[in-house]
Amino acid sequence: MENESLATLQSFLDEPLFLLPEDRLTLEAELFRTNSISHVFSEETQLTSIEATGPVSVPSPTDFIPVPLIVQGNFTKGILILHEEAQLNPEVMDMLVKMLNACGHSMNEVGMLSSEKLQTSSMEDFQALNAHVVLKFGRIKHPVNHFPFASYDIHTEEETEYLFADSLTSISEDKLLKRKLWTALQLLFNLSTGTK
Length: 196
Fold this sequence. Notes:
CATH topology of the largest domain: Uracil-DNA Glycosylase, subunit E
Radius of gyration: 26 Å
Strand content: 5-15%
Largest sheet: 5 strands, mixed
CATH class of the largest domain: Alpha Beta
CATH superfamily of the largest domain: Uracil-DNA glycosylase-like domain
Number of helices: 8
Structural class: alpha/beta
Strand order of the largest sheet: 2-1-3-5-4
Shape: elongated
Distance between the termini: 73 Å
Number of strands: 5
Number of domains: 2
């Protein structure tokens, strides 16, 4: 195992390897010895040769700890709103608040994430939020965007219900899209449509 190449080891290691600072000098010294023609160096010579190559930056272990997604809002009912826009303008936010209120929910019960904040997270990070309902508005730079769901249709994956729609900005500017969204929200939240 000691003589295996990195390419061979890479075939069964699926996680990154990290070099501890205390091991760096030993490995660099061994590498230097291997590259020189069977020349034995003293510890003083090894240290001098390592210093001559310049400082080696070793990432700290905290650089590799995944940062949990921080959802804007209290997220008390497990309703997650994903939106394409980095910031929602006041008119769009007002429309969203009115729609949620009409569905019997308040902004206090939902969590919101912009595509910008979601794009660096994995699907596992996203699923760790444990959302019960996901409303995705617009294009999101995240693996959740790759679900093959048709817009304005409700889909269930495991214990989560998904509703994908156009961007909130587009919906706020188009009455037809507002109607499509309202119809879908009524089905999603089991609201009476008033038709018999």
